[in-house]
Amino acid sequence: MRIDMPVDPRIAYHLNELEIARDPASPHRLMPELRGDDRAVLDIGCGIGQTLACLDAKGKLLVGLDVDLRCLAYGHRLFADLCFVHGAAERLPFRDQAFDLVLSRVSLPYTHIPRALTEIERVLGPDGRVWFALHPLAMAGRDLMNALRRIELRNSVYRTYVVFNGIALHMFGRQFPFLWKRRYESFQSIAGMTKAMRKTGFTDVSFARSGLHLICTARKAQPRFADGLSEVDDLHHFNGAAAGRTAPPPERR
Predict the structure, then answer these.
(1) What does each C-alpha distance from 170 to 20, 39, 121, 194, 206 come to in angstroms?
(2) How far apart are the C-alpha atoms of 11 and 72, rounded to whole Å?
(3) What parts of the chain have a pLDDT lower than 50?
(4) Contact in structure between 46 and 84 (CB atoms under 8 Å)
(5) Cβ neighbours of residue 94 under 8 Å, at least 6 residues apart?
(6) Is 108:134 a contact under the CB 8 Å cutoff?
(7) What predicted TM-score, i.e. pTM, was given to this entire model?
(8) Which are the contacts of 234, defined by CB distance < 8 A and separation ≥ 6?
(9) Does residue 13 form part of some domain?
(10) Do the Cβ atoms of 203 and 218 come closer than 8 Å?
(11) Is residue 163 part of a domain?
């Protein structure tokens, strides 16, 4: 089924992304995988909800967050079963440990990533997971070269900023807003994102290439106690004692 494109180019973009998400054969399709025990899923930068709407997620709470009110309103009319919330990644309007999975399909590159990761870690439950589609250096470099070839002065300045902001994230774990727009954008490297995510409290950080995009997955690290055991290890000992048997000591990492 083909959807007529509206005049608003932002909504038109998201409707085109919806067509891609609905087509399993599309080479541009980027979709996370859900687990059976995922009860609540958050999509940061959801647009009109195109990614959430195409997940096999019957019976799960699906929440989409975006800064664009017009896209949220359009998505609410299109997908009444989704929950749409206005907000930014750097200040998530949700309680602690509210979600089992947080995904972000190509929206994290437009945020202050260290702040966004801190908020994402906060709203994830124990052993919660993340799925991010990111912009590698190759994508930022391509955009900069295109702007230079077309002699687009303002765009060339901005694309240069994006590259240098990505370098700052890679080398120093820091980001800076663009001078007169006060907005953020950067490319993401494997080393820079690994460092930022581990610093925030994520573990099992892994990456895969998908076309021009970089897919990052990770899970929230278990809290560690003074003896070096995690909360899960502690419950394992408690359950063994409660059953009247001695639990074998967990292997220390």
Answers:
(1) 31, 34, 20, 9, 16
(2) 10
(3) 1, 231-253
(4) yes
(5) 42, 63, 85, 123
(6) yes
(7) 0.85
(8) 225
(9) no
(10) yes
(11) yes
- How much is the pLDDT for 53? 97
**Residue 221 in domain:** yes
β-partners of residue 223 are none
pLDDT value, residue 222: 85
For the chain, give the percent of residues with pLDDT over 90.
80
Domain count, the chain: 1
pLDDT tens for each residue of 36-52? 999 999 999 999 999 99
DSSP string, 58-105: TTSEEEEEES-HHHHHHHHHH-TTSEEEE-BTTB--S-TT-EEEEEEE
119 is a domain residue = yes
Task: Please report, for the domain that includes residue 62, its CATH number.
Answer: 3.40.50.150
At 19, list the tokens. 């067509």
**Tokens at residue 227, please?**
């003896």
43, 49 Cβ separation under 8 angstroms: yes
* DSSP H or E segment with residue 214: strand 213-220
Residue 193 in tokens: 């994102």
* Sign of the dihedral defined by the CA atoms of residues 156, 112, 188, 8, in that order: negative
CA distance 220 to 200: 9
Range of the domain at 52: 35-242
In the prediction, which pLDDT does 228 show? 52
Stretch (H or E) spanning 86: strand 83-86
What string of DSSP letters covers 20-52?
HHT-TT-TT-------TT--EEEEET-TTTHHH
- Is the Cα torsion angle 139, 142, 147, 150 positive or negative in sign? negative
How many Å apart are CA 211 and CA 242, to the nearest integer? 51
